[in-house]
Here is the input.
Amino acid sequence: MPMPVSAEYRSKVHKPDDFDAFWDDVLRQASAIPLDAEVVPDPLRTSDDVEVFQVFYTSLERVRIAAWYCRPERRAERTPAILLLPGYQMDPPIPKEWARKGYIALSVAPRGKLRSNRQFNPGYPNLLTHNIVDRHTYAYRGFYVDTWRGIDFLLSRSEVDPTRIGVTGSSQGGGLTITTAAMRSQVRAAAAGAPYLCGFMDAIELTHTYPYEEINDYLRLHPDRRPEVEETLAYFDGISFADRISCPIIVNIGLQDNVCPPETGYALFDRIGAKDKQLYPYDGHGHEAGRIGSSRAISWGGR
Amino acid sequence: MTPEAFRGYWQDTLGALTRWPARPEIDVLPLRSIAFATLYGVRLTSLGPYRLFGYLSIPTGTGPFPAIYYPPKYQSVLEIIPQGTANLQRSRYITFSLAGRGQRNADTPFAAMFPGLLTEGIDDVASYIFRGIAADAVRGLEFLLTRRELDAARVVVVGNDLALITAALTSGATRVVTTPALFYETTALAPKTQAYPLEEVNDYLRMFPARAEAVRRTLAYFDLRAFAPRVTATTLVMAGARGTLLDGPALRPLLTALGGQATVHDSEQSSYRDGLYAERWMAAQCGISDVEATLPEHWRTG
Here is the structure.
């Protein structure tokens, strides 16, 4: 077996003093933009038990964001909802499976993803380092807001129970789960798997695999820009967001994760502000963080 | 579908491909080049004509080097090497990953949708999108084999069904690592799952029930069992965990039909354990003794 991972790893992430002010300003800009949501039935993907819709809404810089929206054919007047957030390279899935479990489910394609890349398309690889020297234009500034607006969309739906909204995802989806739970108080439960975007500068030393390797590539070509890169990433690091999380949350990590080093998962968990938090480290598992077999996820009684 | 019809369809497809020279353009990508490997962006022509894109990584040194070819995956994104693979893999192997038509960097004029690609034109075998994508995969291997740094005795094709299809349609692959997902008994297995990508077939037939026979006919030309006897490369089949749709027992007919030596690995439901098995298998097959050096940090034992 590989060498054991230290749960005592100390991240180098330092939350900037003006972190809250920075994001308050971003949120202020976003709130001035109407959601302007379109909900388009998708008969091809709709089945007897699940209705499927294509959703489009407007986000920061008026970028149009696509999402899949599924709801159980048979449901209560007010149904719990789940926001599903995608991995770095994956194409956002149609969340029929969640609808079959009884949830209304929204699967968002943040800017640059397939179906949301007409106005913004830095590519994969490249998203991670797009404008990485400037926090005001860094790719993930809008990307994060795109996911938070997914909560706004769910809240705009009469069939959604606003007191039972959860968020989940793995890898980049896990990192986005952290940032969304931190920035949207309406989130009542969160489950993050193998969280990416947490401990960027730690991760690029702990592992040399893509996608984090994109940052190493960038710094190898532009070593003089390291201070700006570090400055920017501190504003986007999930570890910087973690103390704002107050909802119940679980975090799954794989101790042989070859993409998101488990050390960063421990460091993230340590900084999470919620009182009700659980960490599930899976030994013998990689980036799937035990998801295939036994990973914990959100559930609500009386659904 | 008769064996003659299968052979004729693919002969016609490959014949049409030969009418379009690859005309490769190869450009260094300094951002992704490192002391131990140089990365190139490659553009080349396939059936259509259609211009494709790939990432070619060549190790530093004199070679010849073993090579890993990654034919088009079932996703929009093209990776240099698969996510989570140690970048140091590029120090030991030539790697070439190809975007088929519709994937990023090869999405003009056709941009594929995911889900959606699996049923694009599926009611007509002559125009089914995967006819072109299979040709793309063949063209990619043909291009890779032209590289003088390559050791032609150690060429591994790694991917989903297209890895096996590529090895069947053209010579040059000496090893195959395949994870069937799209084209193994699709007509029979799709109704047993609600999971994508096979759910795409269910969606399509729910919408267009009158096209069921046409879909069945098309898929017969892509079934892995029909390709298997033509695969002479030593093959590792990555099966699903026991009890899943594409587990070892379900894939048994495929294994017995393969023309070369075959091994099956049943998923242990751990990307670490499964990934480690495949990395070690490839290294052993390619005579790479220091496999630890090509593993991600968190998989190494020392």
About this structure: Residues 19-282 of chain A form a domain with the Rossmann fold fold (CATH 3.40.50.1820).
